[in-house]
Amino acid sequence: MDADEVAKRLQHLREQYTSELPGKFEAIRAAWERLEAAWGAENLKTIIRLSHNLAGSGATFGFPLLSAAARDLENRLRQCEGAAAPSAAELDALRAAVRALIAAGGAGMEQAAAKPLVLRAKSPFQATGENRFIYIVDDDTATAEQLALQLRRYGYEIDVFSSPAAALAAVAAKPPAAVLMDIIFPEGRLAGVEVVAAIQRARQHPLPVMFMSSRDDLEARLHAVRNGGIAYLTKPVDAGALVDKLDDLLAPSPTEHYRVLVVDDSPQLAAYYAEILRDAGMEVEAVSDTTAIIDLLKQFRPDLILLDLYMPGCDGLELAAVIRQQEEWVSTAIVFLSAETDLDIQMDALRRGGDDFLIKPVEPHHLAAAVTAHVRRARELRSYMVRDGLTGLLNHSAIKEQLGLELARCLRENRPLSFAMLDIDHFKQVNDRYGHAAGDRVITNLSRLLRDRLRASDMVGRYGGEEFAMVLIGAGAEDARRLLEAIREDFAAMRHASEQGEFSVSFSAGIAAFAGHADAADLNECADKALYEAKRAGRNRIIVAGVS
Predict the structure, then answer these.
(1) Residue-range domains of the chain with CATH
(2) How large is the greatest C-alpha to C-alpha distance in the chain, in angstroms?
(3) 498 in helix, strand or coil?
(4) pLDDT digits over 44-97, tens only?
(5) Which one of 124, 141, 262, 443 is least enclosed by Cβ atoms within 10 Å?
């Protein structure tokens, strides 16, 4: 959604909010009259809630005077809680505060009328694009081309330059996603750093630069840092470590959008926060009726719940407690969003199950950043339960569970599915000859290649040790074979770094298609037998079950 469309939708929400203000003022006036006529806890609670809602929503929609007056009334009312009745002087002050609130509403609307509500949630965590174009600058062209070949296997587009001057001109003509720059050139021992400094001076925003060098001294590293180097790699460069850094730097937005449930008894405010978070690339559901929460949780399955504190019928503290009592929602992040400034109440909200407490009004980019950080953390924690620690792939039990779920779905929808088992050839020899650190690097290199080359709908897991499993949804046996053959060829051509020098390794695989197999256990067994046949036939090959 473009900026103009967001501005129009937010402006429409403010117009809706403004049109309802007379009714809100009348509700406060009526609540005050009831309270004056019969001072009591329930009547007091009602007007506190009404003034609190205005304190939180007014500034959000561009009426800061309204928020300030509502907060003043709320604070004065809270001072009367627990008292039998206020004194005459306190009553006079409360009457004045009610009149000031209504007057501030009128003045605030006049003040804000000419100010368009253009609020963009520019989250610092949002990916900026799919640019995977990298420049490698090194006068050792043979080494640079070998490194480029390795990076291309992971989906990066590479241009190699042998001189800093050529790289400087290329960056000016077509800026890449990042530059991998050597430090030493015939022009000088810091020539690479100097050309990077010239590149950065010519740009409005710094270009991501990673330095590589045979130098490992403090002087070279300091110059690299001072000129914007985000990484420093010593030669020979480990292609796997470099890809790790590039993947972290250029990671695209999650394929699955962050899901946020906004709960606020003000429909306009709930819609406003929903628009802000959608503008930051999230999937959002907004609800004002707390009785619908449980069903919506099951249907929408949010990563995070953005929860108002004071709501009629069921307040945020009670709702958070109810949610936390259910085991399936224990890891779901809850962020309270309220105009409440009392630190004791905020701490109580966190004790009841909240992960954070934001105070209304909140800047859109602050809201987006806070929500993003908590969702990332929640997903990371959940992933520990189903992910392998070394590779980040699904673990043994998780990939088996996914096979059962996807097989049942494909049976219902009459779609093909293939299950593949893959094993690194002679892996014990790799560990014995090159060490376990090199063996781990081989495993992570293969896992990254599988993630990059498989489709978003496919699932891959580390089955155990050097063995992997893949659920290829919608793929028949021959489709699966063609896909894995291409991956096998690229993996066999890769060079892996170790202290003893570079080396290569291959893998074998067995594939079983779901047609003719009754359940997940049968499919698993057939793929495992096919893998055994591939290894017995000489390794570095793929066998499809039932196909010679």
Answers:
(1) 3-112 (1.20.120.160), 133-250 (3.40.50.2300), 259-386 (3.40.50.2300), 396-544 (3.30.70.270)
(2) 97
(3) coil
(4) 888 888 888 888 788 878 788 888 888 888 888 888 887 778 888 888 888 898
(5) 124
